[in-house]
Design a protein that fits this description.
alpha+beta; five-stranded mixed sheet; 9 strands; 28% strand; binds iron/sulfur cluster
Length: 185
Amino acid sequence: MASNVALDPLVPGRGCDGCTLCCKLIGVIELDKPMGVWCEHCDVGTGCRIYETRPRSCEVFNCAFLTLDILTEAWRPSKCKIVLTVELGGKRMVAHVDPSRPNAWKAEPYYGQLKRWARLAVPKRHQVVVCIGRRAIVILPDKDVDLGVMGDDEEIVTREIETPIGFELRPMKIKPNDPRAAKRP
Ligand code: SF4
Ligand code: SF4
C-alpha cells in the first residue's frame, strides 16, 4: 500500500472493527491493485480472505486514524469514507476519499481540518493532498488545486512562484526525471 504509517503504535483501544475501507482506497503494488477499487481478496466489512499470506505492504499498513490520537471518532474511515495516511516521512498528509462519496472531504469537520493542516504545512513546506482514486487535489490555505488524474510515474511538488503581487504557492505534477523532483515537496 502507499502509506508509510507502517508499524506506528496504535492509539489504545482503537481498531479496524470490520472497516476494510483501505482495501478499496489504497493501492497495493504487489497485487497491481489501483487506488479506489476493492481488492479481490477483501470480504467487505469483514476482513481479508488471505490474511495469513497478504502482501507485506498490507501487513505493515495502519491508517492514520489508528495511529494518531489527535483524530476524533469522526475520522473513523468506515464512517467518514476517508482514509488518512501520512507519507514521505510525515511531509505529506493524504486524505484518500471513497470514489463513491467523492465530496466527503468537503463536509465538516473534514474540510476545516484539512485547511488547518494546510496552514501548518506551508511554513514546513509539507503537503496536504486529497486523492479520489488517481485524481489528486492539493489543499492550500487559500485554495484547492485540482491536478487531475496522476500518472503512475508522476509526483506532486509545490513551488513558490514570484508574481507581481508577491509569492504564490503553485502545486504541479512532474515526472521523476524532472530536475524539480529532487526538490520535492
Ligand atoms: S482504513 Fe484504517 S480502520 Fe479501516 S480497515 Fe484500513 S487500517 Fe483499519
Ligand atoms: S490483500 Fe487483504 S489486506 Fe491487502 S488489500 Fe487485499 S483484502 Fe486488503
